[in-house]
Design brief:
The longest helix is centred in the first third of the chain and has 25 residues, at about 5-30. It is built from five helices and no strands. The protein has two domains: about 1-30; about 30-110, no CATH class. Helix content is about 80%, strand content about 0%.
Length: about 110
């Protein structure tokens, strides 16, 4: 079996990346805003748990960082989308705890 050249690997990698972007766009369109926000909340909780951080990280790190991001990119096309999305995000200690417990329960059941 012949191995790919650097150029061949780069081409395959670019194709896979394009496919991934298309799949993500399709999935995002199929989710309601509420479902997207819930997915983001679970991803934030997963990141906090994976990094073995305290559950208050969402309140004291994640949300302020996103708010800073919004301020920095004021006027950009995507800024309103991010602002609208983050408005309903509540990364409180209790929310992060519930999300992590829910993921743990799912893992135990499967």
């Amino acid at each position: 079996m012949a191995s790919l050249t650097d150029e061949g690997r780069k081409h395959v990698s670019e194709q896979r990346f394009e496919q991934l972007i298309k799949c993500q766009a399709f999935l995002r369109q199929s989710l309601t805003k509420k479902q997207q926000l819930e997915l983001f909340s679970y991803k934030a909780a997963y990141t906090v748990a994976r990094e073995k951080r305290t559950y208050v990280e969402g309140e004291v790190v994640i949300k302020p960082v996103i708010e800073s991001f919004i301020k920095i990119f004021q006027g950009e096309v995507f800024q309103k989308t991010v602002t609208d999305a983050i408005t309903g995000f509540a990364p409180a200690n209790n929310t992060i705890t519930r999300r992590i417990e829910s993921m743990g329960k799912d893992l135990r059941e499967h």
